[in-house]
Amino acid sequence: MTNPETSSGLSSVAEAARQAPGRGLPPVHLWHPEHCGDIDILIRADGVWMHEGSPIGRTGLVRLFSTVLRKDPDGYHLVTPVEKLKIRVEDLPFRAITMQAVDGVLRFTTDVGDVVEAGADHPIIVETDAATGEPAPRVHVRADLWARIARPVFYELVDLAEAAEGRLRVRSGGEAFVLGELE
Length: 183
Description:
alpha+beta; duf1285 like fold; duf1285 protein fold; six-stranded mixed beta sheet; 44% strand
């Protein structure tokens, strides 16, 4: 559902992201433009970004858009200094697709290239999916944006876990994170 007023939405979002200083993230938390409408972008549960029903095939463009993504109380938005366009997200916006354990820290890499180290500022949370009863692990990326931990990565976490007080848990950055209850 692309609003006619946002027909240039993709190009303006891409341009704003390109102008971010250095290789860091744009300061989307400082930008408070008026809501311009919805743009037909969907981040599917499998991490594929779709525009008007077709996958966005350019990974560089997806990475660019991910840098101007923000979650507000009314949902997910691509934000520039002058535009705020609402998008849809089926699950979480990112996927944690790899993990490395280095010197007591679990380092995750997302499908859009973010690298986060689990710890107090980037917790790992495992909830149970109400529909399937399966664990639904996630790791905090930035602001109110999270990455779903991919199943193979979760299995790696389980392999690193220790049993304590009837729970399976991992440690990272001086913090302990519960992966689930032991049966």
